[in-house]
């Protein structure tokens, strides 16, 4: 069966520091991968998605970036964090092929920027 | 572009009572529709999904939802709520054939009274 991992689970970082969040998927090949952010009391905002290694689509202009160095690895980064980057970050995957378009979510990373 | 509206930010029900969470969507064709549940500090778990066929879909944990094209709705129901159902519920719409896919509503927080 497929599983998705995110780490770290929680992170507290000062403003201006760099960020690296990692997401990995097991048990599947060539998945579509997604990064979402969930701010307090708000819904989910799609940040980036990827349909293959090195292929990143950005949904919202911001100081975050994403990379996909391996087929089942998706990384969210920032060179300098802002207070507004605080939130709950969720990674998700979806089968590239097949009739289902269902996305499956990881456990999330709680980021607090102070 | 598709959009989702969940008009109820917060709903409170007594344990054992019936539940209906509302979801309205905007999309130019027949959409993919999803309901996810999120417990505090957790990722999103898929409750059920509609792709085609029978407009009444059954999900996990005793939930069901009905797709009504004429009303652009996909309301979530449960005949008898359990205390463990307290969580936040998200409706999402997907564009067929799109890698970008899901657009989420802002969520409905469910409180269950003993």
Estimate the helix proportion of chain A, in percent: under 10%
Largest interface: A-B, 25 and 23 residues
Using the alpha-carbon principal axes, give the shape of chain A: globular
* SSE string of chain B, helices as H and strands as E: EEEEEEEEEEEE
Q: Helix tally of chain A?
A: 0
Q: What Rg of chain B, in angstroms, do the CA atoms define?
A: 14 Å
Please state the average pLDDT score of chain A: 91
What's the helical proportion of residues of chain B?
under 10%
> Given the helix and strand composition of chain A, which structural class is it?
mainly beta
Low-confidence stretches of chain B: none
Rg from Cα of chain A: 14 Å
What is the number of strand segments of chain B? 12
Give the termini distance of chain B in whole angstroms: 41 Å
How many separate helices of chain B? 0
* Quaternary organization: heterodimer
Low-confidence stretches of chain A: none
pLDDT averaged residue by residue of chain B: 92
DSSP, total strands of chain A: 11
Distance from first to last alpha carbon of chain A: 38 Å
What does this structure look like?
The complex is a heterodimer of chains A (114) and B (114). With 114 residues, chain A is mainly β. In chain A, 0% of the residues lie in helices and 57% in strands. In chain A, the strands form two sheets. In chain A, strands 2, 4, 5, 6, 9, 10 and 11 form a seven-stranded mixed beta sheet that branches. The relative contact order of chain A is 0.33. Chain B has 114 residues and is mostly beta strands. Helix content of chain B is 0%, strand content 51%. Chain B contains no helices and twelve strands. In chain B, the strands form three sheets. In chain B, strands 2, 5, 6, 10, 11 and 12 form a six-stranded mixed beta sheet that branches. In chain B, strands 3-9-8-7 form a four-stranded antiparallel beta sheet, with no helix packed on it. In chain B, a hairpin with a 5-residue loop joins strand 5 and strand 6. The model of chain B has no long low-confidence stretch (mean pLDDT 92). The chains are: A mainly beta (114), B mainly beta (114). At the A-B interface, strand 5, strand 9 and strand 10 of A face strand 5, strand 6 and strand 11 of B.
């Amino acid at each position: 069966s497929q599983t998705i991992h995110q780490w770290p689970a929680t992170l507290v970082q000062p403003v201006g520091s760099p960020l690296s969040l990692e997401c990995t998927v097991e048990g599947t090949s060539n998945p579509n991968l997604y990064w979402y952010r969930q701010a307090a009391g708000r819904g989910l905002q799609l940040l980036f998605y990827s349909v293959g290694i090195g292929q990143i689509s950005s949904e919202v202009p911001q100081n975050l970036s994403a990379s996909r160095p391996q087929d089942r690895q998706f990384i969210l980064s920032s060179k300098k964090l802002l207070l507004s980057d605080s939130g709950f970050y969720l990674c998700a995957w979806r089968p590239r092929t097949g009739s289902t378009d269902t996305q499956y979510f990881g456990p999330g990373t709680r980021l607090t920027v102070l | 572009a598709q959009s989702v509206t969940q008009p109820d930010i917060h709903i409170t029900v007594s344990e054992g009572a019936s539940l209906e969470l509302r979801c309205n969507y905007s999309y130019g064709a027949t959409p993919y529709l999803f309901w996810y549940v999120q417990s505090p500090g957790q990722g999103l778990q898929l409750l059920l999904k509609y792709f085609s066929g029978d407009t009444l879909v059954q999900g996990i944990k005793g939930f069901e939802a009905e797709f009504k094209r004429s009303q652009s709705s996909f309301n979530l129901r449960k005949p008898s709520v359990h205390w463990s159902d307290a969580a936040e519920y998200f409706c999402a719409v997907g564009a067929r054939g799109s890698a970008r896919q899901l657009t989420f509503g802002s969520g409905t927080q469910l409180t269950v009274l003993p």
